[in-house]
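Shift notes (night). Ran Glucose-1-phosphate thymidylyltransferase while the centrifuge was going.
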Amino acid sequence: MKGIILAGGAGSRLYPMTRVMTKQLQSVYDKPLIYYPLSILMLGGIKDILLITTPDDQPLFKKLLGDGSQFGIHLTYKIQEKPNGLPEAFVLGEDFIGDDHVCLILGDNLFYGDLDFFRKAIESQKNKENSLHGRVFAYYVADPSAYGVVEFDKETKKVKSIEEKPAKPKSNYAVPGLYLFDNTVAKRAKSLKPSPRGETEIVDLILSYHHEDKLGVEMMYRGLAWLDTGTPRSLLDAAAFIGAIEERQGLKVACLEEVAYRMKFINLEQLQQITASLPKCSYRSYLEKIISEEL
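Came back to this:
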């Protein structure tokens, strides 16, 4: 299983914040936004990750994350010249995906809670006997009209329809920016035609699996938080949410060095070396506390 983070786009809804720096490098409480989706892939056990960025922002991402070796992962980069739709991530990443399965996460999506559902979905996706070649997730929201919306049959619980940003949603279940697909996804993405807004649509890609009875939809139940940070208000809400969790628990969310250590991507000695290279700050103090507890 490989991972792709789509961190391109114009970020126009966050203007003027995004005039000089993409939204995925904006801060969510005490860390850049990109840390959160990257941590999700790492917590899913995914170590080979492609980061798709705009031409202007790629040097900043490389300065921040490098090749990922400090986290025990392998990061490669690809440029998206202009936002042509989410499925373009698979076209740009075709060679990267190769013969493997792939997980796409959007660079402005934040998840917090028990990720056991995600790990199980990954294991099921990799099972060669599995007949489902694509998997998406369904999350109950108050206003689903801004997202792809899944309608379920009330009796069989099977998917009846999936619509992109419907004016009159048929359910309250939105599709978050987290997707699992097999290696036919690039070929499928290439065959998509742009919608009236001039971009290919992720819902059309999902439907290509659904029409072949190869799509699985996994429920995200209460207790798991999903935050979309595409507007100033939602970015502020995400920062307040993370701040409240961290201050209450004394534990950091999406601390990549800690995730790498807990997932055994790096050992304690490597964690000590990384921590020693950081400037004196609360982030370093947090890692030092972890190290002291492990010694």
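The longest helix spans residues 232-249. The chain has a mean pLDDT of 94.
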